[in-house]
What does this fold into?
Amino acid sequence: MLETYENLYEEIFRKIKESKKIIIHRHERPDPDAYGSQGAMYQLIKINFPEKKVITVGKDSPSLCFLFENSEVVEDDYKDALVIITDTANFPRIDGKLFTKNNFLIKIDHHPPLDNYGDINLVNTEVSSCSELIYNFYTYLNKKYDIKLNDEAAKLLYLGIVGDTGRFLFPNTSNETLRVASELIKYDFNMSELLDKMEIISENLMRFRAFIFEKYDVYQDGVAYLKITKEDMDKYGVDPGEVSTGVNLLRSLEGLYAWCFAIDEGNKVRVRIRSKGPVINTLAEKYAGGGHPLASGATVKNWEELDDLLDDMARLVGEYLRENSIK
It folds into this structure.
């Protein structure tokens, strides 16, 4: 397997060296790993190939734009450009699709490979995050080609890993993840200040989080959910991206094994699904989604179809409890 990754590392590095212009994308409604992997890839290329034109694109997130701001692009910017897409499992989730079939696409990701949309697909589901994968890519290049990593890239990679592991609390935190994190904090950035900024939220979002605790409901033993309507979001002045940041707040509920946020986005309902045991990415795939075994996303057409999803989730949790003799 390592040899396979090394071959992909070589292919990607060759394309980067060949390209004069590189445009880097990530997924819609970005989280810290999306920002971290995208920004670190930018820094990694720019510090080692300063003559290249490198651009990051995508809608900025109010809570994360302190890291960097993306550029506005038009279709002409993609002429002869190499396109790299980080932390994005499937094509529809790419933020910004102004590239054409003439552009060479590189996918770098850690989600289950259901959609290999890239001309090169570097996908490793064993790592905690796309940021950890990019650090592995850098390590290989450093040993073979003396490629450098700067402080800003290290900061972004650390942030991405912290975000996707829930500050190293989630089961995707491995010995290797902790080793990588220990290497990154040797670089010159203020770790405490960075983590504090990650926790800063607006007063509107703080009040909305109180709404989460007040309004969540238990569907059946082991399953909880929260419906968030457009009226709810308007009342608290929050958007769907901000709402999604609170999905793990229910994690501490006693006896909970799987839960979801259902967010009304007008023509569809976006569902954020989380688990503390049952594998839920297959459930997400049934409802036009996917993701990780314990953290996935799905889409339903309306509230009635959400009931179907909750029924399936309840069955999944019931099976998990029986299989593991949990009462």
